[in-house]
Amino acid sequence: MTGPESHWARCCVLVVDDSELQRRHAARLCSELGVGRVVEAAHGLDALERAALLEAPPDLWIIDLEMPEMDGIELVEALQLRGVRSPIVLLSGRESELIESVQSLGFSVKRALRKPLERKDLQEALQACLVPQRAAAEGGARASAMPSGIDAQALEEAIRCGQIVPYFQPKIDTNTGILRGVEALARWNDPERGMVPPDQFIALAERTSLIHALTLSVLDQSFAQCALWQSRGMRLTMAVNVSPELLTRHDIVTEICALQQQHGLHPSQITLEITESTAVESQGAAHAALARLRLKGFGLSIDDYGTGFSSMQQLSRIPFTELKIDRSFVHGAHRRKSLRVILESALDMARRLNLSTVAEGVETLEDWRMLQSFGCTSAQGWLIAKAMPGSELPAWNKAHGARLPEFRLPR
């Protein structure tokens, strides 16, 4: 067996539904689609007991929302409290707005499907949930078993030895599909521990004095790569993340400018991304640094837009040039009215403020077409490409040329 079904054959799915007819229907569809093991439970408490008897947690939970004793929402909350990270598919015969709102309960909830369950909908859910889950388990076991022994000393050594390097995710124009720029993302591949998750080592760096050395190292490597591309005829813009912790340093503007000049880049090629949720507090020194960087010609992006609580305030205080919309408002927006309305409103506001826009987390052509219709400037995501080492970008761009008709704005 080849394709997704070969992954599903090694997976276990737990179906939770108080309706025996509906439960057996879902279980039968799973079996017909090639799922290796299907476990049935009549309600939430029954599901927790059956899961506890399994040798390993289920690879996927299919959960009905309306059940006696413990309903679907209670079960999702119970799984989160137990640290269960397996993806969840919700089932309900209720109105789509309700199940869409329940879908936002937690990051493990991947799909919300209407009853009666149809084969094609379940097949899409299995494709979206089980294949990445199994691939990560098989190909990334070394990374997931990590990271024991990660401390400030190990991080400092990794920075000093050049183990932390930038990968680059392409950003393409939504009208033409042409590569316009990249986002630099720090990656740490430790010789013994494997890939260290960025959210762990960056958080560690921010808790210590190492965020300064880490940022300057990544900036230096990223600017050098951008200059190398430029020398070979690829003039690209580059977005780099800057921790708000650094913006209060009196010399940070001088240091960034020195690196930009050292590598022969123009400030307009560089956009500094500041995460909205971490830039909430009014810090005079940080705002002054951002204003100075803007005066010198650097672009400023408010990153993960929509995930914080002071969006309007930040946009009015800081001279941003770009609004980057968080993937939570992009992924699946073509099938969720609430997300579409929020997304279109954000893009319209950005247009009125003369801000360029970037949508992250684009994974389907349907979401891509929707961004085109809403007038988004550029986008990035797995539909386009994952982050890659700088040496791989020219070959990727050459191959990407064959996909341009797919991405171009329909006429």
Characterise this structure.
This protein is 44% helix and 20% strand. It has helices spanning 4-8, 20-32, 44-53, 72-81, 96-103, 119-139, 141-145, 152-160, 198-207, 211-231, 252-262, 284-295, 311-317, 337-352, 365-374, 393-400, 404-407; strands spanning 12-16, 37-41, 60-64, 88-92, 109-114, 164-173, 179-190, 194-196, 237-241, 270-275, 299-305, 322-325, 356-359, 378-379, 388-389. A hairpin with a 3-residue loop joins β7 and β8. α10 (211-231) runs parallel beside α11. The two termini are 41 Å apart.
Helicity range: 40-55%
Rounded radius of gyration (Å): 23 Å
Strand adjacency order, main sheet: 6-7-9-10-11-12-13-14
Distance between the amino and carboxyl termini: 41 Å
Low-pLDDT residue intervals, each spanning 5 or more residues = 134-148, 277-282
Main beta-sheet strand count, sense and barrel state: 8 strands, mixed, barrel
DSSP strand content: 15-25%
Total beta-strand segments: 15
Count of separate DSSP helical elements: 17
Taken from the alpha-carbon principal axes, the silhouette is globular
Q: What is the arithmetic mean of pLDDT?
A: 85
Return the structural class: alpha/beta
